[in-house]
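Continued from yesterday's entry.
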Amino acid sequence: MKNKLLVLGIVVVVLVIAGANALFTVHQTKQAIVLQFGEAKRVIKEPGLAWKIPVIQETVFYDNRVLDLDPPSFEVLLTDKKRIIIDAYARYQIIDPLQFFRRVRTEATLRDRFGKIINSSLRRVIATVPLRDVLSEKRLGIMNEIQQVVAGPAESFGIKIVDVRIGRTELPTQTRQSVFSRMRTEREREARELRAEGGEEAQKIRAQSDLERTVLIADAERQAQIMRGEGEGGRNLVLGKAYGQDPEFFDFYKSLAEYQKNLVDSDTTMVLSPDSEFFRFFGSGGGARPKK
């Protein structure tokens, strides 16, 4: 009886261990392949609890999320004979784990083999464009073209290329110095042209301003002369009327104007005869002309 219980206990333990080894969990971020003696038997993509035959079967898990692939940078000769160093990266997703297992088995092997394919595709596409396109807004179109080129080979690895980007673009030292020197020369030439155009435009503006100033001054002087003439005419008319009404007062007024005009400074010296017409208002209160 004891032997039977012992055997039964051993069987239960073996079944428990076998059952534990037969069951495994597939997480949401994973997908699994069940292998039997190294040959794939089935693929499990749905998360949850799954089973396998203990001892003779094993499982391989692959990530089903978007992964990064960063191949080493390389140097390429562009169509305008300039060399640049390209550092690109790709983002991919394993969509066929069975095909992925048959081609590369591990992500490390994929990075090595498919990374070379990406660099080769980059080299073919970028070698057909000039440097200015790589550094301009056309860069996005170049990356889309590279993604389309690598999409075909990616299917044979069981992966889908989500995106391909050129992360860093550098010029070799010698090329960089040559490009910078040429860019500086080009900017200096453009600066000289802009300064020359600005100077020419400034001369035109100054000439136009001088012309307008001359016209304005001439017009103002003409208007001033007209107004002065009209004023003089009005003044003479008023003075003529005043002289007709009171000639003696008019003579007195003119004499005062002459005094003010000629006797301005305190050190003014005039040598005149006492009976001079200039002093006739000094000798008599009425300003009568002296009798001869």
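--- second protein ---
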Amino acid sequence: MKVAVVILNYNGRKFLEEFLPNVIANCDPALAEIVVADNASTDDSIALMKEKFPDIRLIENGCNGGFATGYNMALRQVEARYYVLLNSDIEVTPHWIEPIIEMMDADSQIAACQPKILSYFHKEQFEYAGASGGYIDKYGYPFCRGRIFQELENDNHQYDNPKEVFWATGACMFIRADLFHQIGGLDDSFFAHMEEIDLCWRLKNAGYKVYCCPQSCVYHIGGGTLPKNSPRKTYLNFRNNLSLLVKNLPEHQVGHTILYRIILDWAAAFKFLFDGCPKDFKMVYKAHWDFYKRLKDLRQKRSCGEHKTVSCIYQKNIVFESIFRGKKKFSELKQSEFTL
């Protein structure tokens, strides 16, 4: 099969029941196989699949290893030219697969690609997890075409041009299957959050490109497994963001970038405290402590590939630009300030 659409599920029965019929209706069976990989759910997701979707291939992972390990375990059992990593809380649209596959077929250097991601509840608005393609600044802070931190733009077709980006969202990522395995898959130690940024960075370090193809569009609920205000999410984001910097930055940039990030992270931690979020403050402390304990392993992972200056990194501090200079839209950022 040319394309395998693989949906990772953990206690997401309600999403499977609501959205899987939509995915089935909008996948040409001659082009794409649909696979549901279950991460040892404790709800009745498995029973639902066997009763209502018996024709859909079901992979039962023996444990809940999070997004990273869950997909790694499942994709070792799936043969296709392209994988689509698709969240269970996404509504796809007619012909959402074809434009991206056509683009990737035409350019063998495109390793991964995402569609335009809009909000399921506010369909005129970009969705947080991906919007119209992901970027990072020089200190590792992620943002998107259509979303800077919590500022979500309306989709007025201002970002409808296919464009090379830094990262493609794990909510709906198309990736060449051979490269996924060749690059080592997702980093199991991340568990969840930012593992797709790490994967895309490794692909770019290996000389490949990551794209957004807005001619394909999907609608995402978001926060289906971990709510956006979850302290657990705070922990994973802070820990994994530091980890991907150590793993992927050029050697001459690692030391001062990490030092700067430690200062910024503790400023964020005390803001959590002053805003009445002591659990988030504790999660920043825990994230840093666990990051320091993992430094030796992270340094060993660096040795597995090249580390160079890659394209689509914003060469300013997006925190400063957003908060102090009022730049709330991607279009307000100068394109000359991104690496080529």
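The two ends are 35 Å apart (CA to CA). The chain has a mean pLDDT of 95. Will compare against the first tomorrow.
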